[in-house]
Amino acid sequence: VDAFGTGVKSEAFLAGLDHAGKAQWRRPLLAAGLPNAVAVNAAQEIVVLASYLPDLETVSPFFSSDSIYLGKFMANGTPIFEKELKFDSGIRFYAMALGADGSIWAGGAKTEEFPNEAVAIAKYDANGTQLLLKTFSCDGSCYINDMTVTPKGDVVFCGSFNSTFNLGGEELSTQAMLGSSRMYNGFVGRFDSTGKHVWSQRFGGPIFD
Question: For the chain, how far is it from start to end, CA to CA, in angstroms?
Fold first, then answer.
């Protein structure tokens, strides 16, 4: 690719493959770190979520930023938009899901006072405009790592936590312990299309999940 900036050694990229695995097109994502999530909506538009790192000389999974890259592309790789989503501090999105109405949901974690972090979940419209952002603090580590959107528009998400926290229902506490240290259990939650809590629960055993 001849589109790299001066001094840049590598870039994240997006590619379209046919059913035989042959590349039909390729496009460098000049402002992105390595993507955390890629999804395709009913219109065959491609949405990409990554750390926003426009000046990175070498792409690496170990680099993140306080901004998020959100890109949307046509089925042939032509960009619809590429934008920076700015946050006050350390939000990282690991998961994304698309609604039938074109909405974009993202989930991950927000860094708080070390070593604590909060669950973070956000919703954007089809143009990448933020509709909601919610965080849920916990007294340890907790984050979303996968999500989906139901046909009626509810978002269902799951993740890991080694702490106690509340998504809007009953308090969730890990049952996994190693000596006096709390270990990871899983959690799953469901919010409606407006971000209102529907239900949430913990799962996993006393050792590690």
Answer: 42
State the sign of the Cα–Cα–Cα–Cα dihedral 53, 91, 200, 162: positive
Instruction: Examine the pLDDT at 116 and tell me if it is beyond 70.
Output: yes
Query: pLDDT per residue over 188-201, tens digit each?
Result: 999 999 999 999 99
Q: What are phi and psi of 119, to 5 degrees?
A: -70, 135
- Dihedral of CA atoms 92, 102, 32, 118 in degrees, nearest 10, equals 0
Q: Are the C-beta atoms of 118 and 138 separated by less than 8 Å?
A: yes
The pLDDT score that the predictor gives to residue 2 is 61
Sign of CA dihedral 99, 145, 45, 130: positive
Q: How far is CA 160 from CA 39, 140, 190, 203, in A?
A: 22, 11, 15, 10
User: How far apart (Å, rounded) are the C-alpha atoms in residues 180 and 1?
Assistant: 52
pTM of this prediction?
Answer: 0.92
Q: State pLDDT tens for residues 129-172.
A: 999 999 999 999 999 999 999 999 999 999 999 999 999 999 99
Q: Which two tokens stand for residue 24?
A: 């039909």
Distance of alpha carbon 113 from its chain centroid, rounded?
21
